[in-house]
Amino acid sequence: MSADIPVPVPTSLEAPEQAPQAAPVAPASRREPGTLALQWATVRVLLARDVVRFFRQPSRVIGALAQPILFWFVIGSGFAGSFRVEGAQGLGYQQFFFPGVVTMVVLFSAIFATITVIEDRKEGFLQAVLAGPGSRLAVVLGKALGSSTIALMQASLFLLFAPLAGVDVRAVDYPLLAAVMVLSALALTGMGMALAWWVRSSAGYHAVMSLVMLPMWVLSGAMFPVKGAGPVLSWVMLLNPMRFSVEGVRRALYGAQASLAVGSAGGGGVGWEVPALLAFAAVFLGLAAFSVSRRE
């Protein structure tokens, strides 16, 4: 008989061999965005939202160009035969009125753009943004930059007709023109935001704007020069901060001589447009930030 070969039988006491396991890897730490990144994100979202909403409304794009052209042509043609300025005999009324219409485009664009503050508050969008990580100053800057971008795009479209107003495009002071338009847009949108935050209805907002901003434009030297106005009206026009917008655009397009000819006896605000508009913008953006930060 063949001898039995013993076969090892595993018992329950013997532990099976296990493959070595890798050491557990700690999950990668998630980096939180910094404060500056959160503020910039808030500004960027609000700016892009206003610009996209503007281009999704074709009537606003068409009206942005058609309305100022019609306004400039009708009023400019009507007063062309009776307009005379001593010292600026070569300056017709359409040339004189053109910088005022440029400022009017920025003004009306600021009014219609900042009215979205009332709409966004009614829809609850601004409440959601204010509850986010962005500060209220970032909300003000985002809305102001979005509204200013729309106003500058509309004004730039109208400036394409500058050669028809006798403007030599080679002699334009483009840095001055850009600085005046940007600061004017920021100042006017800041004013619009400050008023829109206090006014609860769109109809009330339009009424307040008609009583405040429209007279400011009329008394800015846009429709008639400071020279020739009555003594009281001349002082009102000289104290009007929007006058620096009109005079700055006029000086950038036609030169300092044209601005001196239609300004006050002392030269008006020639040379002071940028500092005055910078202060104007800082005051009204600060007022808008204060209004937004007000607890309700």
Count of alpha/pi helices: 12
Q: What share of the residues lie within helices?
A: 55-70%
Q: What is the approximate shape? A: elongated
Radius of gyration: 31 Å
Q: List the secondary-structure elements in sequence, H or E.
A: HHHHHHHHHHHH
Task: Kindly describe this structure.
This protein has 296 residues and is mostly helical. The protein has one domain (36-293). Helix content is 67%, strand content 0%. It has helices spanning 35-55, 58-79, 93-114, 116-123, 125-130, 136-159, 174-198, 202-222, 231-239, 243-254, 256-262, 273-293. Belongs to the ABC-2 integral membrane protein family. Residues 59-295 form the ABC transmembrane type-2 domain.
Could you give a quick summary of the protein structure above?
The protein is mainly α and 296 residues long. It contains 12 helices and no strands.
How are the SSEs placed, and which strands pair?
Blueprint: H1 35-55, H2 58-79, H3 93-114, H4 116-123, H5 125-130, H6 136-159, H7 174-198, H8 202-222, H9 231-239, H10 243-254, H11 256-262, H12 273-293
Properties at a glance:
296 residues, mainly alpha, elongated
